[in-house]
Amino acid sequence: LDAVEEDKQEEETEAGQSTTNEATNDQSDEDDSTVDANHDEAVINASDDPLVAEIWTSDAWQAYPTVQTGEHQSTFTQGHIDYEEKLQSIFSVVPIEQQESIIWSVKNNGNAKSAIAVISSNDKTQKYRVAIEWIEQQGWKPVQVEVLNTLEGTY
Q: Residues 48-70: pLDDT tens digits?
């Protein structure tokens, strides 16, 4: 095992527990814990933002494989391959299916190689803001999921 894997195993052992990624999950302490987000382990952190309940990140999240060739052009037009690949990447790390969701916004997150989306379940009980980044020759990769307390003011 390399040093990073050893450190990760040590942290997981010290954490001593794993929780599931459900809207009803209560974070009982301020310590990091892990969550199974669509079969990839994610780290859960508390948030100081009153709009955000918790923040998920994972080194295990992979880029959604792109079929795009040539120079990448980011677009936010529904039906365009780049937009559809963004959605595939976004929904790969949340526990709701795209067809059972509301997409409130998908927009630029500061540059052409990053985007951010606000999505919810149809009944609005599950609310997420997902940040993704473009990885050349690979595709859109999720980098952070924020579990939202509210949709108001988040998109």
A: 999 999 999 999 999 999 999 99
Give pTM, 2 decimals.
0.76
Residue 129, beta-bridge partner list: 118, 146
Strands 127-135, 114-121: parallel, antiparallel or unpaired by DSSP?
antiparallel
CA 98 to chain centre: 14
Instruction: List the beta bridge partners of residue 32.
Output: none
Helix locations, 40-112, DSSP H: 81-91
User: Please, which residues have CB within 8 angstroms of residue 155's CB and are 6 or more apart in sequence?
Assistant: 104, 105, 107, 118, 129
The per-type count for the chain, helices as H runs and strands as E runs, is 2, 9
Closest CA to 63 of 90, 102, 84: 90
